[in-house]
Amino acid sequence: MTLVLGIESSCDETAAALVTSDRRILAQAIASQEEEHSPYGGVVPEIAARAHAERLAPLIDKVLKEAGKTLADCDAIAATAGPGLIGGVMVGLVTAKALAMASDKPLMAINHLEGHALSPRLADSDLRFPYALLLVSGGHCQILRVQGVGNYQRIATTIDDALGEAFDKTAKILGLGYPGGPAVEKLAREGDAQAVPLPRPLVHSKEPHFSFAGLKSAVLRAHDCGEHSDADIAASFQQAALDCILDRTRRALSGMDAVSALVCAGGVAANQTIRAGLEGLAAEFDLPFTAPPLPLCTDNAAMIAWAGLERLNAGFAADPLELKARPRWPLDPDAEPARGAGVKA
Ligand code: AMP
Ligand code: MG
């Protein structure tokens, strides 16, 4: 049995976890920074970095004590090394380097997106490579063919905003606060999903890429015209987002080599309507559908520890202590840029 300490600090959650190779989360702790960022309606990078610096060490201490372990019991220290808000990533990575150095344990520098991509295998021991992954979070919206540990083929990406960003922006327009995804989902339950005509950007286009900027602007116009209830806007937005996701994922699956399952991960995978829609889509292709349990969908350190375990298991070497934090770090560096996309990876 192998034991890895995982550290996550790429956005607004400070997290530490201890995970074993037989898929047990011995202890985990997450400190959310919702309170610090909510007055600004989004994450302020400088505030985030300072909060990570204050909270991370006590969190690591807490999970070690809770599990009755010391650093000497760990086989490796895994930390997010990117992509993300660079100040926060540096706090987590430097902490991991110091712990690795002090305890003479290997450092595993983890791509945060790889953490999301492999997280379904922490929860589901039957999930085999290759699988199709819809990765939908606050900063990313991609479809990947997960072919093995460290082996990702990007099939689609967003040419503008991430889906979580569109949920958060909709919440802001409707005055629902930050983070917006869960609040939009809750309000949508009281609304009519057909009430507000909203666009479905890129639906039916040949390439399976995503676009949400136009949908976001349409939500703002629908709100400003004053003719619709907030609940109807929330429900209609969620329906439009789901229609985009189903159409784009259907397109991607149609052109993809065989896979064992359709998987959804990342913060937006917590959305029940989106999960249910994807389950139906998977059935069209005779594929099982799986998504991690909700606490493993949003940013957490268990998925980082698990990615470290997967990398150790697959024979990847430890990373050097001089390794740099990376604000951008695509999972598939060979993927062609999507036509019309900005500079986002
Ligand atoms: P992550 O970037 O993986 O931490 O995910 C955070 C993103 O997921 C934010 O943009 C949230 O608004 C979004 N999110 C979280 N829960 C939900 C939900 N239930 N429905 C839609 N979006 C959600
Ligand atoms: Mg994330």
TrEMBL record:
Gene Ontology biological process: tRNA threonylcarbamoyladenosine modification
Subcellular location: Cytoplasm
Cofactor note: Binds 1 Fe(2+) ion per subunit.
GO molecular function: iron ion binding; tRNA N(6)-L-threonylcarbamoyladenine synthase activity
Protein residues bound to Fe cation: 112, 116, 299
Keyword Iron: yes
Cofactor(s) listed in the protein's UniProt record: Fe(2+)
UniProt keyword DNA damage, yes or no: no
Enzyme class of the recorded protein, top EC level: transferase
Residue positions binding substrate: 135-139, 168, 181, 185, 271
Record's keyword terms, sorted: Acyltransferase, Cytoplasm, Iron, Metal-binding, Transferase, tRNA processing
Job description of the protein: Required for the formation of a threonylcarbamoyl group on adenosine at position 37 (t(6)A37) in tRNAs that read codons beginning with adenine. Is involved in the transfer of the threonylcarbamoyl moiety of threonylcarbamoyl-AMP (TC-AMP) to the N6 group of A37, together with TsaE and TsaB. TsaD likely plays a direct catalytic role in this reaction.
Identification of the protein by name: tRNA N6-adenosine threonylcarbamoyltransferase
